[in-house]
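help with this:

***
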Amino acid sequence: MATYTGNQGIIKIGTNAVAEVKTFSLNTHAETVEDTAKGDDWRTYKPTFKSWDGALECQWDDTDTTGQLACAEGAEVTVDLYPGGEGAPRRHFTGSAIITERTIESPEGDIVPHSITFQGSGALTEENLS
């Protein structure tokens, strides 16, 4: 069984790696509807719609024009996530997303953080790198 360390992960906007990444997350969801009928002893459910979203935390880099600065709120982008890095054989996730929020803080005596959240639009593709 393969395991990976988080420092190998890469996130790209389009074909460009985002600079100064600290962490990113990917969340997938499946909605359900109840299909329990009279006479059933247990409630039962069926899957319906799927969705996905995620977040990215970096150290603010205003020279990263094709990564961080391409993530303006409302921007429609292609997101590529490589949790274990780009080397084969590893899993890769990609899909179209909309940037829903950006937060830039200015903490005293610390690196300026830049947080970005995104909402998937359409299918998320998961595949092995080979």
